[in-house]
Specification:
By secondary structure, this protein is an alpha/beta fold. Helices cover about 20% and strands about 20% of the residues. It has helices spanning about 30-40, 135-140, 155-165, 185-195; strands at about 5-10, 45-50, 70-75, 80, 105-110, 145-150, 170-180, 200. The strands form two sheets. A six-stranded parallel sheet has the order 5-2-1-6-7-8. A two-stranded antiparallel ribbon has the order 3-4. Helix 3 links the parallel strand 6 (about 145-150) and strand 7. The relative contact order is 0.21. The structure holds pyrazine-2-carboxylic acid and zinc ion (ZN). Zinc ion binds near residues 51, 53, 86, 87 and 112.
């Protein structure tokens, strides 16, 4: 698949807390970094996302007296999975992994900063109505296709790719440049992608821009 100037690579949440040793470590999360470093130079445009929660965020189990991580609670906007405290604004866990070196990135999109709403998707928060502004940004920049890589395949990459389709962009997930929080979810996510028209390829299928 040939990359054009209307394509953008969105590198999702390569932060210390999602990598081994972090508060919400994704199995093999750091394994995607060399893959992303290898393909990023093929793209004319790169965007980073950063999970960026205030202390006491509504998605943290620690914000509830009797809840544990990975349980679900009913919030005003529906079911919300609770997580260990992670990616707290200004903490080392929220920083990008030091091996991620993409100074050419044109935008760092922060999400999850509203105390009472979580945000898995880079386009809409979990209430499905509060936009992050990414749709307008991509549209105004003239991008037509978004390529997605990063963490986690079953959360932020998953919801971002589906919302990209809803917003009218072509969405291509670079499968070998993603890892899941729950690797047993792969088949379900794959089916969701197929239904939404999200294309999955491996980075070996990318070729240099013309
Ligand atoms: C994410 C869980 C909690 C993600 C963020 O970026 O995939 N997952 N916060
Ligand atoms: Zn989060």
């Amino acid at each position: 698949m040939q990359i054009t100037p209307h394509d953008v690579l969105i590198v999702v949440d390569i932060q210390n807390d999602f990598c081994p040793g972090g508060a919400l470590a994704v199995p093999e999360g750091d394994a995607v970094i060399p893959v992303i470093q290898r393909v990023a130079p093929l793209f004319h445009h790169v965007i980073l996302t950063q999970d960026w929660h205030p202390d006491g965020h509504t998605s943290f189990a620690s914000s509830y007296a009797t809840r544990k991580p990975f349980e679900q609670v009913e919030l005003s906007y529906g079911l919300q999975t609770l997580w260990p405290d992670h990616c707290v604004q200004g903490t080392p866990g929220a920083e990008f992994h030091p091996a991620l070196r993409l100074p050419q990135a044109e935008l760092i999109l922060r999400k999850g900063f509203r105390p009472h709403v979580d945000s898995y998707s880079a386009f809409f928060e979990n209430d499905h109505s509060t936009p992050t502004g990414l749709d307008g940004y991509l549209r105004e920049r003239g991008f037509q296709r978004v390529f997605l890589a990063g963490l986690a395949y079953d959360y932020c990459v998953h919801y971002s790719a589906i919302d990209a389709r809803r917003a009218g962009f072509e969405a291509i997930v670079l499968r070998d440049a993603c890892r899941a929080i729950d690797p047993s979810s792969d088949a379900r996510i794959h089916a969701d992608f197929a239904q939404a028209g999200v294309v999955e390829i491996t980075t070996a299928q990318l070729s240099r821009p013309a």
